Amino acid sequence: MIDIITLIPNSFYSSFLISIAVAIIGSLIVINKSSFIAGSIAHGSFGGIGLAIYFALPILLMTSIFAVFLALILSYISLKIPHRSDAIIGAVWAVGMSIGILFSELTPGYNAGLISYLFGSILTVSNEDVYMMIGVDTFLIIFISILYNQILLVSYDKEFAKVRGLSVGFLYTLFLVLISLTVVMSVRAIGLILIIAMFTMPPFIAEKFTKTLKGMMFLSGILSAIFMISGIFISFYFDISATATIILVATVFFFLSLFKK
Fold this sequence. Notes:
By secondary structure, the protein is an all-alpha fold. The protein is 82% helix and 0% strand.
């Protein structure tokens, strides 16, 4: 165990930091049934990666800007054109990916790092990634601590929240922006393709064993950490992909939880 921790410390730091994000944002994605729109932001943000590589810009910064831009577009669409939002969300998903593919192909040379952004490589997480995770997690904790009651009300009864005078549109937009930042902070570790699986399975399992949102967040954070650490150990000893192993570990428990009535 000591050898593993000495060899790949950032993977363990990122596991716990991502688990905090899963606990907060993942739980809100599940109870708000926002997996599709979160998936659109995650996959669409590949456009930011492609642009960053083509123009030789900082990848995390460019991807953050692009992802937040997508979140604002999707928020407007969901609030103003709800009856057609599913089709437009799917289009944003595809357009973002297409932009990323196009600009990565136009970039001279071979960009081996693109694979890690698509499928994740938690064993190669950099200090810069860890610092961003700390920053985003801090913001998430402040967000949920201050706005917990409002978020709870909006998540379960938007109409009543409007009657109470809450700014539902603002809170929803802020929620999507936080999803976008969470996606960017996790992209190196988990990858765009697998992010939504990681952010929905632990909260889905936790929801079956808890009765409150706070309990769901707490348990999903613990489960996420267990899945990620277990996946890292298994991948290390069997020399297989860590991210894929983490998702498969989570999937096993996900299907086992389906038997819970």
